[in-house]
């Protein structure tokens, strides 16, 4: 415990983060929206995940005040909410910048250049993993598989995909984000801020769902070939099925 009586959370980089800042932005409006989310489910506690996203849309991270607010609405203990908030990596205990930039460093992306991209961005932004630039614009994090291996190496900005990246395109991307240039994902979506994205994930649409994502050429290559060559799925082998019944 720190001298001021608040707990400190120590990160992998050994930089203490105040457990509570004392300036929570959670208001009665936020509490009302939490109740609205809980009412969408037969069992209210099922709304905990979107409620934590709502907390992040307001606070920029999961704060102690946010945890207690969720607990109060759902009739849970703070420990029960904390157990969920600390289990999933999408919930952050450290403040996140305007743009959360993730670089996939899992197997395929890594060997296709993901590791090189991540190292280049660390140098370019002068930050380490899960750290934020001094201007508060970019938080950099290495991510596990994004299930987009057909576009490796892949990056994400506030959970929107950026495909077939290179160290050069990656540095240009973060420079554009820091400069305030409008950026669009190759799959169509306009990049919004971290807090705006978190509000959408909480279940409050921003009216831009039709911007993306879309299926790209690499993803649809198998379907295209099947149609060109009139391939169809094999029919059921009735004799084999009958044999299984006899067994």
Number of domains: 2
Cα(first) to Cα(last) distance is: 66 Å
Strand content: 5-15%
Tell me the number of helical segments per DSSP (H or I, 4 or more residues long).
Answer: 9
Shape category: globular
Which structural class matches the secondary elements?
alpha+beta
CATH topology of the largest domain: Glutaredoxin
Helix and strand succession? EEHHHHEHEEEEHHHH
Tell me roughly what share of residues is in helical segments.
40-55%
The overall strand count is 7
Nearest-integer average pLDDT: 87
Unreliable stretches: 1-14
What CATH architecture of the largest domain do you see?
3-Layer(aba) Sandwich
GO molecular function, one term: 2 iron, 2 sulfur cluster binding
Keywords: 2Fe-2S, Iron, Iron-sulfur, Metal-binding
Biased composition (Polar residues): 1-13
Region (Disordered): 1-22, 227-247
Explain what this protein looks like in three dimensions.
It is a single chain. By secondary structure, the protein is an alpha+beta fold. The chain contains nine helices and seven strands, in the order ββααααβαββββαααα. The chain has two domains: 8-85, Orthogonal Bundle (Arc Repressor Mutant, subunit A), CATH 1.10.10; 99-194, Glutaredoxin (3-Layer(aba) Sandwich), CATH 3.40.30. 40% of the residues lie in helices and 11% in strands. α1 packs across α3.
How is the secondary structure organized here?
Layout: E1 8-10, E2 16-18, H1 28-38, H2 48-59, H3 64-74, H4 78-85, E3 99-104, H5 107-125, E4 131-132, E5 138-143, E6 155-157, E7 160-162, H6 167-179, H7 194-202, H8 221-228, H9 238-246
Parallel strand pairs: 3-5
Antiparallel strand pairs: 1-2, 3-6, 4-5, 6-7
Family: Belongs to the complex I 24 kDa subunit family.
Biased composition (Polar residues): 1-13
Pfam families: 2Fe-2S_thioredx
